Structure formats: C-alpha cells, structure tokens
Amino acid sequence: LEEMQMAKVAHAQSPSETGEHASSDSDSEQACSDSGSEQAVSDRDTQEQALRAELKALLVEKPILERSLSDKDTQEQALRAGLDALVVDNASQSQEQSLRDRDAQEQALRVELDSLRSGLEASSAQIVQLNSQSQHMSEVEAKLNAEIASLRTELEMERKTTGDINTREQALRVELEEMQMANIEVEEKLNAEIA
C-alpha cells in the first residue's frame, strides 16, 4: 500500500506546470483520504494479529487442561477401586480394631475422592470457559476480517476513481497543448500575412 501511495504521489507531481496549482488541492485531499483508509486497514490488521496470538495461546492451553482432566478421571477410578476393596474387606473382618482402621482408611479415601471431584469440577469449568473464549475470539476474528475486506474494497474503489481522474486530466492536458500549438501556428500565419 505504501509503494502504491508513493507511486501515486510521484505520478501526481509529474505533469507540466500548466494547471499544477489547480489540481494540487484535489490531489492533497485524495492523498489524505487514501492515507486514512490505509491507516484503518493497518489498525485492523494489527488488532487481528493480536487476537490470533491470543487464540493460539488458548488453543495450546486447552489440550493441557483436557489431559489433566483425563488423569484425574484415572485417579478417581483407582480410588473407587481401592474404596470398593476396603468395603469388601470390612465385611470379611471380624475384629473391631481392624474395622476401625478400615473405617479410618475409608474416610481418608472419601476425603481424597471429594477433593479430586472438586478439582475435576474446576477443570471442567475452566475448559468450558476456554471453549467460550475460543468461540468469541473466532467471532471477533471473522468480524474483523469482514471489516478489513470492506475497507480494502473501499480503498480500491477510491484508487480507481483517482486513476480515472488522472487519465482524464492527462487527456485534457494533451488537448490543451494541441490547442496552444494550433494557436501558435495561426498567430505565425497572421504575422506573416501582416508582414
């Protein structure tokens, strides 16, 4: 975009001095309009890059949380198996002291199981939140892409209009030069006849 803008400025400065002051104001206004549109596109691109980086970070974090959730599920299954074994053991034990020991172990396992469940719930909630953020980022990215495409289309239309104006200006300059040459020839003929 910067190269196209520089080429356009160089092209606007290349015609002869005839009518240069008359077209300088319109060229300046057009350059300002192009510059504003290009800055808007650049800002959108910068914002889009930042959102893409944040989305990538979220996508990296998601599988880590999912693996942690799977590991906690495995731990829960192991604890449940141990708890079931203790319950079966308690049924077969006849001594009161042994039963108290088993009860204490069972209670400790139940506390650990409750703690693990709390961790699983927190991880699940975090994954849900991560999915929501990822979806939101995708929606924002799509919206920004649409806005950038619209701005670029508008900029291309402005450039086409500028090109049409420049082409018409060049044609008028050529026509003016031809008229001036014709006037000079007529003036020379008149001077010759008068002489």
Report on this model:
Helix content is 94%, strand content 0%. It is mainly alpha-helical. The protein has a domain at 24-157: Helix Hairpins (Orthogonal Bundle), CATH 1.10.287.1490. It contains three helices and no strands. It is rod-shaped. The model is unreliable at 11-24 (pLDDT under 50).
Summary tags:
3 helices, Helix Hairpins, mainly alpha, coiled coil, 0% strand, 195 residues, single chain
Unreliable runs, pLDDT <50, ≥5 residues? 11-24
Query: What's the helical proportion of residues?
Result: over 70%
CATH architecture of the domain at 24-157: Orthogonal Bundle
Query: Count the strands?
Result: 0
The CATH C-level class name of the domain at 24-157 = Mainly Alpha
Shape: rod-shaped
Rg calculated over all Cα atoms: 40 Å
Oligomer state of the chains in this structure: single chain
Q: Which structural class do the helices and strands define?
A: mainly alpha
Question: What is the CATH topology of the domain at 24-157?
Answer: Helix Hairpins
Mean pLDDT: 77
Question: What is the terminal separation in angstroms?
Answer: 60 Å
Number of helices: 3
The percent range for strand residues is: under 5%
Order of helices and strands, N to C? HHH
Biased composition (Polar residues): 29-40
Coiled coil: 141-189
Keywords: Coiled coil
Region (Disordered): 1-48
